[in-house]
């Protein structure tokens, strides 16, 4: 086995996420820990596969905090890495400062992508000498352990990813350890269940020694063309999906050489996260609140890795409510406040369905299938609603609707007022 180069692969810090929330400092704390651990591992290169920032135009305050973190690698011992060549990139854009200590090579993510002619945050970091930015180009570096070529493509809209990759069509450099780094969803590996990626692993070009993708927020590893395909995942919990409760946060360390290996380094500063999903069937809001309260007490008794921070808890509620109950009656804020000293609680109630609403939706669907004219359909819906409130037919609804639909509001109001006057007189007479 020849000499080995150690490379740290980090991604998706999302600095600036969750501002003005209890988790505001978490992205910064976890990014710093990742860099500190990478430096302690004595890596020779650090790769960042996108979304350093959570915004395209970070605030000055956030810039200052981010630059302090990114100054950790350059402050390491004298660099043993030299720039040999930049392909598809002006070498003059690469500051000698970026080659100090442990060079950092980065691409932009979807959160940082800006329009043509506008400077994105990763470009600004390159101008400051803190990173080397790649976007559909390559740098060839020389190290005591051999040559390494980093090929990088920043995020492009999913529907364009396959075409852009085909047009760029990067080629491995002979005699070097070749890394292809992108920031995209790939086939089954997606940022969210709503995303429909066009790009699949087999669309990536062959011949590289290592493939890396950011954007996907859970860490995963597989192989393509017999070589590792790594998803470092985010260092910060962002989406609160079930997989983020199962898979730890951290980054990869790659050892190159005759038989390349990789391992995952877990972060210690990440909050514990508990995810609960529950399907209900004809329950009341009170029953749901009681279930959440019981479940929360169980969760807070569970063992945790990080006892110094309040854990994250997410409840995803599904199913049907009892008749007369609506999800708006479930006041999530009250439950959050109830456990505010012990947790950071999120309650997702979007998938709860009121039987009343379901019946109304079914009525509308039935009316549509029967191809009833719009006016008649509207009348049927109105009558259905009036029956729910036990309307006793004091007014001739059909006549009133016809008057209103023809713009005769004054006549409709006159009839309603006349009926009310009659009722009032009758009630007064009864009391006399």
TrEMBL record:
<dbReference type="Pfam" id="PF00149">
    <property type="entry name" value="Metallophos"/>
</dbReference>
<dbReference type="InterPro" id="IPR050535">
    <property type="entry name" value="DNA_Repair-Maintenance_Comp"/>
</dbReference>
<feature type="domain" description="Calcineurin-like phosphoesterase">
    <location>
        <begin position="5"/>
        <end position="218"/>
    </location>
</feature>
<dbReference type="InterPro" id="IPR029052">
    <property type="entry name" value="Metallo-depent_PP-like"/>
</dbReference>
<protein>
    <recommendedName>
        <fullName>Calcineurin-like phosphoesterase domain-containing protein</fullName>
    </recommendedName>
</protein>
<keyword id="KW-0540">Nuclease</keyword>
<dbReference type="InterPro" id="IPR041796">
    <property type="entry name" value="Mre11_N"/>
</dbReference>
<dbReference type="GO" id="GO:0004527">
    <property type="term" value="F:exonuclease activity"/>
</dbReference>
<keyword id="KW-0269">Exonuclease</keyword>
<keyword id="KW-0378">Hydrolase</keyword>
<dbReference type="InterPro" id="IPR004843">
    <property type="entry name" value="Calcineurin-like_PHP"/>
</dbReference>
